[in-house]
Structure formats: C-alpha cells, structure tokens
C-alpha cells in the first residue's frame, strides 16, 4: 500500500482542514509532524520530511502552502529519496511573511518525480502566474482550482473529496508510467469543480 505523507504549512492544519480530514478518513495517510509549527526552520522541516520518506519509502507527498514549498526543497536537495509522487497544493511564496523568509528562494529545477501543482487564481499567498511558472520549472502538471482562495478552511475547504481523486489520479500516473516518463512540464489536467 502506498502511504500518503501529509505535510501542512505554517501553524499546521486545524481539525476542520482538508489535510486533517484526510488523516481521519484515509488509513494510509500519515502526518509529517514538526517540532515547531509556528516558527518554521527549513533544515528542521526538511529533515522531518526526509525522515518520514525514509520510514515510508515510495509514498506520495501531499503538501499545502509552506508544506508544498518544503517538499520541493526536499526533492531538489535529496533527489535520491524514494518518492512515488508529490501533490503540491496552494504553494506559498516565502517572501510574503517574515516567518517564511528562510524558505526562499524557491527551487526552480525539475523535481524528478511525477508532480501535480494545485493552484488557485485568487490565492493570497501566491499568484496563479507564479504557481504556473513553478509547475513548469518543476516539470509538474498544473491543476487550475479556479477561484478557491488558499484552499484552506477560510476558503471553504474542510473535507475535500476532489483532492483525494486528484491524488489517486496522480498515483495512477506514477504507478503505471515507466520510470523514465514524467508528466509534461506545466500540463493542465483539468479544472476543479467543488
């Protein structure tokens, strides 16, 4: 069974957040915990993610906000880690808030695993244009959420069944494609319907 490693952003994911919901309904999901959710440190966060990958090799990583950016940092820093795929939801621009600044610059190289960037057109943490650019740089597919804010509780995302479907579609691509084949750079795989 492929594990889903859930990687929240700064301040973690409250109980009503879709990531917390996934942890409750998906037996294969595991939270990548951090020692300090409110004062993120890149080395600490990256080490925790790398440790979780080593413990659960061949998992899919699902990150939200700063968690998505930290996954990109881990995959470029340690490309040898055995990861099945990565789903990066509503990535956050580290330069938007002082607590996140140490996570800049965001790496802009291929991530070398099948990756899906899920981005919103009115996300206050990163413009859709920037998310689209990063998807291209990472060699990732791009899923257009429309006007979905930061894809969090405040923008109406508690349970998010479509997110699970996107994860499963990504896993099918990662499972059945030969290792040398990756998702096309910046390819769009559809538009969200809540």
From TrEMBL:
Gene3D superfamilies: alpha/beta hydrolase. GO terms for molecular function: hydrolase activity. The keyword Transport does not apply. InterPro entries: AB_hydrolase_fold, RBBP9/YdeN. Keywords: Hydrolase. The keyword Hydrolase applies. This is Alpha/beta hydrolase. It comes from Rhodovulum strictum.
